[in-house]
Amino acid sequence: MTLQLKQSTGPEFSRILGLGAARGTNVVTNDDVAGPIDSSDEWIQQRTGIITRRRSDADVTVIDLAEEAALKAIAAAGITAQEIDAVILSTVTYFHQTPAGAALVADRIGATPAAAFDISAACAGYSYGIGQADALVRSGTARNVLVIGAEKMSDFIDPTDRSISFLLGDGAGAAVVGPSDTPGIGPTIWGSDGSKAQTIRQTHSWQELRTQPELGWPTLRQEGQTVFKWAAFQMPVVAQQALDAAGVTADDIQVFVPHQANMRIIDQFIKQLKLPDTVVVGRDIADTGNTSAASIPLATDRLLAEGQAKSGDLSLQIGFGAGLVYAAQVVVLP
Ligand SMILES: CC(C)(COP(=O)(O)OP(=O)(O)OC[C@H]1O[C@@H](n2cnc3c(N)ncnc32)[C@H](O)[C@@H]1OP(=O)(O)O)[C@@H](O)C(=O)NCCC(=O)NCCS
Question: Active-site residue among 123, 144, 204, 262?
Fold first, then answer.
């Protein structure tokens, strides 16, 4: 008789069981950042919708932010840290090449020996993580998965950079994904376009920093107009694909939470997806800034906390950014 390998199988459906958020505690105004880039409060508000951004103190690490959001998400999910089988940390601002930040977070919150790994998918990191968590749960590889998007963007800003630094904030958002009796996470539509890798980038590599220390600490830059066009005109197509794949239309959803990159991009999404006025839209960027992988869970958590969205609502979420990479899915809010 031939030996038949066993494969794991899991529950039919998964969903987000709880969310948690942590924002930088310092409010940084447009006037605070405008001087070195010859900008103004008026220009920044008009072109980006940002009024303030939230940043952390120098001694707060991205792991601290991740831990705070994770503990809140676990409490909201009504489970214990011991019940988490995998921790996924999406971040591009953790200082260590190895070990993964996720393992530290797992240890700090008491989730050991959960599997732990980091995802580098920039502003799409949270949506990448939710797609992974959904697959891990439904395959039976993990029962409960903790997904964290955490960034301390202020560690990679150049106050004299006009292209991206003034947009950025610090924060973390987390979700616990677990088994469900009903469908709670629609198919993830995701992808990449590495031919545009240079459009959002670190100024120079760690290797260049080692051989040319005069270059100084690397920071971020972007080709704003190129990224804007890609985000505003190609990403709505991806968002529509996520709706189609989930078997719903723009009229069926209650909430829309795109990555918080620019208020004008958010408005383009609304127009192109023909979202009805009844859909509540995440606009957390106005006072939190762009927090990369943290922006979607931060904006979603806020809508729930403020009562603008409620448990059971259908929410379309889409992350997009450096890579270039993107991921979108429709989720049922916890
Ligand atoms: C960065 C961004 C806000 C710049 O806005 P923009 O409207 O594209 O600005 P432009 O580059 O077209 O420049 C327009 C004018 O503003 C000026 N300008 C550019 N940046 C400026 C700044 N930070 N402050 C003041 N003026 C600025 C330019 O010099 C230009 O002036 P000119 O008309 O006299 O030549 C915008 O391109 C953007 O949000 N891009 C996408 C960001 C994104 O989605 N990222 C996703 C991944 S995180």
Answer: 123
CA distance linking residue 68 with residue 185, whole number of Å: 24
Residues with CB under 6 Å of ligand 1 are 37, 39, 43, 47-48, 123, 162, 166, 200, 224-225, 227-228, 231, 261-262, 265, 290, 321
Question: Ligand 1, residues 161, 225, 288: which to mutate, most atoms within 8 A of Cβ?
Answer: 225
**Is the distance from CB of 288 to CB of 119 less than 8 angstroms?**
no
The single residue of 30, 144, 259, 262 carrying the catalytic annotation is 259
- Which CATH architecture describes the domain 189-332? 3-Layer(aba) Sandwich (3.40)
Same fold, 13-180 and 189-332: yes
26 belongs to the catalytic site: no
249-301 pLDDT tens trace: 999 999 999 999 999 999 999 999 999 999 999 999 999 999 999 999 999 99
Residue ranges per structural domain of the chain: 13-180, 189-332
pLDDT tens for residues 90-121? 999 999 999 999 999 999 999 999 999 999 99
Q: What is the CA radius of gyration of the chain?
A: 19
d(CA 118, CA 99): 9
Residue nearest to atom 8 of ligand 1 (CA): 225
Confidence at residue 1, expressed as pLDDT on a 0 to 100 scale: 74
Tell me what percent of the residues of the chain surpass a pLDDT of 70.
100
What span, in angstroms and rounded, lies between the C-alpha atoms of 174 and 334? 12
Q: Which CATH number fits domain 13-180: 3.40.190.10, 3.40.1190.20, 1.20.210.10, 3.40.47.10?
A: 3.40.47.10
- Pair type for strands 255-258 and 220-222: unpaired
290 is catalytic: yes
